[in-house]
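Entry type: protein chain
Record version: 2
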Amino acid sequence: MEIHGEDQRLKEEEEEMIEESSDDCTSSSEDEGTDDYRRGGYHAVRIGDAFKGGRYVVQSKLGWGHFSTVWLAWDTLMSQFVALKVQKSAQHYTEAALDEITILKQIAEGDPDGSKSVVKLLDHFKHSGPNGQHVCMVFEYLGDNLLTLIKYTDYKGLPIHKVKELCFHVLVGLNYLHRQLSIIHTDLKPENILLCSMIDPSKDPRKSGAPLILPDNKDMKGRVTFNGNVNKNQKKKIRRKAKEAAQGFAGKKAIESSLNVKSSADFPNDQLVGLASVNRSSNTDAATASGKEHVGSKRGSGSRRRKTLESYDLKCKLVDFGNACWTYKQFTDNIQTRQYRCPEVILGSKYSTSADLWSFACICFELATGDVLFDPHSGDNFDRDEDHLALMMELLGTMPRKVRESTFNHFKVITLVCSHFINMLCPFQIALGGRYSREFFNRHGDLRHIRRLRFWPLDKVLVEKYEFSEQDAKDLADFLIPILDFVPETRPTAAQCLLHPWMNTGPNSLEPRAPDAQSKATDTVNSEQIKSVKERKEAMEVVMGNMAIN
């Protein structure tokens, strides 16, 4: 099901309000507040609550977002920990959840062994409560997200070989989504990439040995009711396993309200928070909200942390497909979290899988340095979008005319002469379809309000600000600059990124899997398309009197 009309408009306005309001936040909210615990809003979950006829028993709170809350639960049928996501009950949240489930089921069907670096949906169902009927999703339990890992380094960045290791898994996931499923994630960011285990083993329920919270015998008889989703044999198995667990952990029963769960101590809100569609407004806000000051108090343990990271397995998976879509079926133009938003989205042009690659490049930089690549702010006479474009141009150079223009005016005079060439170039005319280009650029191609740009190329930034060696800076810049191309069609694919020399050099290099015949064919097609586009552009320049398109 899709979100249409008024519901879609309201959803986009809500997301924009969330982003704008967070600019002015001076203190973070540790919980979701009480306002949305109402009809159409959150379901009030308590520790010890059972879902789906007693199969899933809530253990603790993992995180929350503006559309759902996420809980650590024990699956009594499979005897394993899972992440339980409980969506708000209003109609547009329900429809969005059903769209997400459709995508997640497609992902799971193509990845039976879980090797594609994408989170696996294990189960889904509906749960009725006083605030309405809530769609619930059950995921494999994972660990800390990459923002937690960045904080663990005290915002100083990870060793390059560890950055490569993380990038490898992210690219494997993107390659699977883009090439095999034609799915665009649309909200790639550190919070939406989860490690497969916790950095601190004592906080991992699978390793900590903490006792389970389960209903005792009396509760099982009095509280648990089974619905049509559970057959007779499953009922018996659930009762038996719950009884055994309850006997083993007698006296370990706790009922706490949703807002009184002390998750920030044992399970911080930024662990598994990607499953809850949390919006991130800026690096400063995120650092405050996630407890940067708390991390800073442990500066003395830097060497211990580096040693921990060296021995830590950084396998990770992509999560949160609440905003995902297909290349051939898109739900909204309002995609991506601010710091990871690509230029074509800001300009209101069409987007595709290459939008995810732009976000990936921003994440790669953040992992290596501890800082976000772009962190725009509004000024007295310009907004965040224009500042964002200015930051991009200062790092990458001026934006090509074909990206920034939003009108056919320059082509009208010669339309009859070269309409054939214009038609060939149509896939490349991002700005010609950019609804907002004229709001940012004047007819000379300059930003309307930000005139003085201070150019600072990426390799120089890495050396001068982050003290990279000349070689490391050059190697990383050589990897990232093509991905940060203003023209989406010329960005490399995830598969091509996996074959880049930067991904396959160094003491801890990771060898990408040899591409199959289909992958080779696709890469050949992509290379031919880029070559063809370049030839068309050259022909166009000749016909148009060598007008500087690029």
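Comment: The radius of gyration is 25 Å.
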